[in-house]
Amino acid sequence: MPVPSISSTHLPPVLADWYLRSARDLPWRRAEFHDRFGAWGTLVSEFMLQQTPVGRVIPHLEAWLERWPTPREMAQATPAQVVQQWANLGYPRRALWLHRAAIEITERHGGQVPRDVNALLALSGIGDYTARAVAVFSYGDRHPVVDTNTRRVLARALEGRSQPGPAARRDLIAMDAVLPVNVSESAVFNAAMMELGAMVCTARAPKCEQCPIAAQCAWVASGRPDTGDVRRRQARYEGSDRQTRGAVLKALRTADDSAVPLDAVIHDWTDAAQRDRAIDSLIEDGLAEAVDGMLRLPR
Q: pLDDT digit of tens for each residue in the chain (299 aa)?
């Protein structure tokens, strides 16, 4: 069977129709969310969604924006308040980066999240994906937006591979090649590709029978071969340094004045060396401070 060609002239309408019928109702996709929080709401949601499931993000996002609905208000918070509010979302350095970005937005841009991709990339903690996501989903500009889910759809539909390779600049080029020229259509297409990868073209159990572009998919046409997966695997969480760091931060968040005597921090942890390593790494990352024999959240 010949491999079908993905054409930018027919793929966007098919995907757009599917997305408008099937997309999940998520807070950051609602008009009232954008009316109230603007690009700041989009930026906060994108920070939280990095490597974190949607279901865990939603309640944290709502609480965060109730407390700090603008960058100016968040810029006045302390690092300790930010880490405390981040709670158990994981990868807590994102909280400090978001805090620094809020300060930079306030000082450099008058409290308004910039629209320009290069200006967004100059903010703390913002990379290619987040910068373009804000420019597209908040401001409606035309840019390719590529996350893990989009990369998987591109790998299967265009290249006939079962899994994408490591993230690279060529992903943006591939996405731009199929992105509609029309600006408003391009924003819908970006969202549709992400949604397709998250809900249908999944990593382990793709639902090809439900896919709106199955008839144009190179991987389906070639019999859905296993072409291997060269991406680096994430280490197990149980027993990892990440778990230990999380336990230390939880102890600080729940302690009076967010501080615990150093020798009492998760004192019953089975691996004392791992405990000490976790404490040292949190101090190095600016997520904790050791002062007068106490470990505390950063002031």
A: 333 344 444 567 889 999 999 999 999 999 999 999 999 999 999 999 998 999 999 999 999 999 999 999 999 999 999 999 999 898 899 999 999 999 999 999 999 999 999 999 999 999 999 999 999 999 999 999 999 999 999 999 999 999 998 888 899 999 999 999 999 899 999 999 999 999 999 999 999 999 999 999 999 999 999 998 876 666 677 888 888 888 988 888 888 888 888 888 888 888 889 888 988 888 888 888 888 888 989 88
Catalytic option among 46, 107, 209, 284 = 46
**Type of residue numbered 236:** R
Instruction: List Cα–Cα distances, 225 to 66, 71, 162, 261, in angstroms.
Output: 47, 47, 7, 56
What's the rounded Cα separation, in Å, for the pair 133 and 206? 25
3-state secondary structure of 264: helix
Nearest Cα neighbor of 157 from 210, 193, 187 is 193
Q: What's the CA gap between 189 and 208, in Å, rounded?
A: 19
Verify whether residue 62 is a known catalytic residue.
no
Question: Is the full-model pTM beyond 0.90?
Answer: no
What are the residues facing 290 on neighbouring strands?
A: 295
Sign of CA dihedral 107, 110, 114, 119: negative
